[in-house]
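Section 5: illustrative case.
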């Protein structure tokens, strides 16, 4: 998969849909007071950039060399000691993880305090098919209840959960994944009900989890 993401790296660094967003602002707000952070599956590096601008010491991590992370590794096997960072963040990437439950456990393990996640929500099988046709690296989106179960399993208390609609330009969304021809036509059919002009509605969830302390 890394070679695919290497090819997409420049598009994700410049993507309007990734460079900005209500969730990006919220993750920065939730991280206030922290000194160190890990940005898991950094992609275009937007979370790392914003947290650094906020004054945090940030390590970025991604399995794709083309994303130019500080550390090359998958989310399911983080190469850090327990309690290495004040906050661990992951934005719009978990739907690509092979084992999201293991990834959340790893994020909780290396965090001293907070785990912050933003990702697209599961909204039905048509939406899942559209994501898979557009991008075969898509594994699955998850419901809020599923996310809460992953956090609980990792020893995290969900302090805040925020859902919102993130509108993205449809054609650039297709182009970033190299989706063209009949595949693109199929995706357009599947997402027709979510279109408003040239933008498509993506339902997204942001969760702020804090590690439970024993005793």
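Designed sequence:
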């Amino acid at each position: 998969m890394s070679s695919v993401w290497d090819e997409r790296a420049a598009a994700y660094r410049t993507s309007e849909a990734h460079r900005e967003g209500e969730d990006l602002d919220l993750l920065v707000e939730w991280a206030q007071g922290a000194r160190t952070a890990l940005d898991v599956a950094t992609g275009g590096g937007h979370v790392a950039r914003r947290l650094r601008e906020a004054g945090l010491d940030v390590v970025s991590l991604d399995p794709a060399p083309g994303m130019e992370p500080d550390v090359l590794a998958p989310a399911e096997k983080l190469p850090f000691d327990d309690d290495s960072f004040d906050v661990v963040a992951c934005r719009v990437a978990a739907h690509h993880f092979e084992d999201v439950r293991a990834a959340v456990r790893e994020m909780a393990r290396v965090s001293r305090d907070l785990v912050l996640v933003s990702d697209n929500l599961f909204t039905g099988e048509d939406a899942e098919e559209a994501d898979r046709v557009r991008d075969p690296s898509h594994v699955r989106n998850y419901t809020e209840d599923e996310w809460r179960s992953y956090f609980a399993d990792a020893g995290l208390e969900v302090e805040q959960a925020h859902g919102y609609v993130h509108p993205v330009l449809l054609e650039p969304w297709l182009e970033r994944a190299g989706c063209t021809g009949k595949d693109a036509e199929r995706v357009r059919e599947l997402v027709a009900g979510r279109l408003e002009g040239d933008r498509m509605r993506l339902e997204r969830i942001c969760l702020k989890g804090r590690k439970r302390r024993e005793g």
